[in-house]
Amino acid sequence: MVKDSIIETFDLTKRFEVSSHEDVGYGLEYLSRLVKRKLFKRERRFTVAVDRVNLKVERGEFFGLLGPNGAGKTTLLKLLAAILYPDEGTAYVNGYDIRKERRQVRSSINIIVSGGWLGFNWWLSVEQNLKFFGRLYGLPKKLAEERTNEALKILGLEEHRNEVPFYLSSGMRQKLLLGKAFLLRSPVLFLDEPTIGLDPKAAYTVRQFVKEKLNKEYGMTVLMSTHYMEEAEMLCDRVAIMDEGRIVAVDTPDNLKKLVKKGEFLEIKAANMTPELIKKIEGLEFVEDVVTRMINPVLGISVIRIHTSNSRALMPELTHILQSEGAQIRFIRNIEPTLEDVFMNMTGKRLREG
Ligand SMILES: Nc1ncnc2c1ncn2[C@@H]1O[C@H](COP(=O)(O)OP(=O)(O)OP(=O)(O)O)[C@@H](O)[C@H]1O
Ligand SMILES: [Mg+2]
Asked: In this structure, are 190 and 306 located in the same domain?
């Protein structure tokens, strides 16, 4: 293993058997299914959730996994956290083999899975939960208390210290789970979509806390999955783009965006944009791709993003068509590509639908 990488994977692979409705049944139905399977040897089908992944994460790095639903992000994190066992290949986490040294891997990491509230003790208060985690993982009593108080303060949970997790909002629960990471300070932290479903303010607190405290101040290596490209751009030193179990690109957000520098991007905000008009724009010469977002359905105001091979050559025809079709242009400007464009460029798909 290379000296300064804290996570390194070697052709890491995980398959899941695809089950269909025919596999479900009780009693006799279940028996007949077993018999049929033996007699007819129905072919078993598998999805490759993680497909020969080779990845290196440096010590202290903030590393992002970006990809659409079903890309294999959660499965990859669970493999590295020694929750799932690989079918092929292996990985080293903090110097330990995820096949052979699973206990040591588990004590090197902390994993926070989205919506994974199972880690709480529902009968203990917020404060007691944190202290309990600390004590369970061997912190001395005084240190556990100190860190609990600090965590409650930074995460804005002080007012809720005496409540039980059952009555907390999902944002508060997510903060409480991060409090656990703060207490234990394992060298590696896995975060599975840490801000999903949180309001903007809670999402901001969570991001700041993870970046400034856990990553920068305590030097924890963070591997985070996300759907939000803005989040990946904001937080990550490097990002791996994942699709159908494979890593399609790895680099800093800036370098990834340079990959789509071929061509330029125009953004137009206008009222009265009809689907027919957008079809016409898509058909123009020099237009590679068009993404439309309606921002005010009442006034019919939309923002459209055009990937073009030559914006200067496109402009006269574009403005002509917009004006003749009655669109009221608010602005047209050149914009930088986003990670979404990188993803589309690499896979021909969108990260998020809509
Ligand atoms: N326990 C399981 N049993 C069977 N198939 C599974 C299981 N877990 C995941 N899969 C399949 O593996 C593939 C990858 O799933 P995974 O949850 O890792 O994707 P993801 O990138 O985390 O997606 P999302 O963004 O929706 O969270 C999917 O096709 C999924 O259906
Ligand atoms: Mg997932």
From this structure: no
Residues at CB less than 6 angstroms from ligand 1: 16, 47, 49, 67, 69-75
Instruction: Calculate the alpha carbon distances from 136 to 132, 139, 141, 307 in Å.
Output: 6, 8, 10, 54
CATH (domain of 300): 3.30.70.260
Same domain, 248 and 280: no
Say yes or no to pLDDT of 24 above 70: no
Q: Is residue 347 part of a domain?
A: no
Number of domains in the chain: 2
Residues with Cβ within 8 Å of 96's Cβ and at least 6 positions away in sequence, in order, are 104, 105, 108
Calculate how far, in angstroms, residue 67's C-alpha sits from the geometric centre of ligand 1: 12
Judged by average pLDDT, the poorest of 143-147, 160-164, 189-193, 334-338 is 334-338
pTM (global) more than 0.85 = no
Whether 5 contacts 80, CB under 8 Å = no
Write out pLDDT tens, residues 34-60.
Answer: 777 777 766 678 899 999 999 999 999
In the reported structure, the alpha carbon of residue 177 is separated from the centroid of ligand 1 by a whole-number distance in angstroms of 22
CATH number, domain at 170? 3.40.50.300
